[in-house]
Design a protein that fits this description.
This protein is of the alpha/beta class. The chain has two domains: 229 residues, TIM Barrel, CATH 3.20.20; 29 residues, no CATH class. 42% of the residues lie in helices and 13% in strands. α4 packs parallel to α5 and α8 runs parallel beside α9. The N and C termini lie far apart (45 Å). It binds 3-methyl-2-oxobutanoic acid. 3-methyl-2-oxobutanoic acid binds next to β6.
Length: 272
């Protein structure tokens, strides 16, 4: 197996476009804290997404809806402090951009100013076009997100595959074109048929990054806790686990507990 050698140059939105043009795939993962972000950046990840999935994996909420803008800024600032190379994209949380475009702009500016983010991401198509356009007027790069958009879970009712029917697939295609035209630098497609995702990636000149959207797109994103096997209950078909950290961590912690209780930790060398 060949080991990936990352290009040491900082990743920018322009670099992502160049990667699409050259057919180089984009690797993106979520991150929410300093220590993990440092590891992922050091390993050569191209894009780190401070996702509102922090609401699930960091705070233990059932959905992404409860996380606040202040909490997103806290996570984003921690990630930014760790990163030397990756592009850091931060999710605008539910309720921080849907109201009106002025509110969307204020939320995006807070994320850029207070966390030092490089770009923001928000969910939706035509219904958020005005907000995206307004954010772009301030020079803030925007990543779109279509398909399964978890902030709308109470509208969808389930987390099943989206856009399987022709009408929804056509709307997704139209929305994708609109996101490119309005000025998004990339879009995420979540949990849609691979053929449709391929069609979108071929039709657009901006990078299309998939999660559960097949391999014929310009890059992939996964939630870090899922791909490292820290979370075990979440087992969608698209998820590949690259480690079983739940077992590794449980093993280490039980070993530590045993050592403490049996007085094997600390030993003579581990004290002053
Ligand atoms: O919040 C998140 O983690 C996301 C990814 C699933 C794309 O939006």
């Amino acid at each position: 197996m060949s080991v990936h050698q990352p290009n040491p140059k900082k990743v920018t939105t322009h670099r992502l476009l160049e990667m699409k043009q050259k057919g180089e795939k984009i690797a993106m993962l979520t991150a929410y804290d300093y220590s993990m972000a440092k590891l992922l950046d050091g390993a050569g990840i191209d894009v780190l997404l401070v996702g509102d999935s922090a609401s699930n994996v960091m705070a233990g909420h059932e959905t992404t809806l409860p996380i606040t803008l202040d909490q997103m800024i806290y996570h984003a600032a921690s990630v930014i402090r760790a990163v030397n190379r990756a592009l850091v994209v931060v999710d605008l949380p539910f309720g921080s951009y849907q109201g009106d475009s002025g509110e969307a702009l204020r939320s995006a500016i807070r994320i850029m100013k207070e966390a030092g983010a490089h770009a923001v991401k928000l969910e939706g198509g035509h219904e958020v076009k005005e907000s995206i356009a307004r954010i772009l007027t301030a020079g803030v790069p925007v990543m779109g997100h279509l398909g399964l958009t978890p902030q709308s879970i109470y509208k969808f009712g389930t987390y099943t595959v989206r856009a399987k029917q022709e009408a929804e697939a056509n709307k997704l295609l139209e929305d994708a074109h609109m996101l490119e035209q309005v000025g998004c630098f990339a879009i995420v497609l979540e949990k849609i048929p691979a053929k449709l995702a391929q069609q979108v990636a071929q039709a657009l000149s901006i990078p299309v990054i998939g999660i559960g959207a097949g391999g014929q797109v310009d890059g992939q994103v996964l939630v870090m806790q899922d791909m490292l096997g820290i979370t075990q209950a979440f087992q969608p078909r698209f998820l590949r686990r690259y480690a079983d950290l739940q077992a590794t961590i449980t093993d280490a912690v039980t070993h530590y507990i045993t050592d403490v209780k049996s007085k094997h930790f600390p030993n003579e060398q581990e004290q002053y």
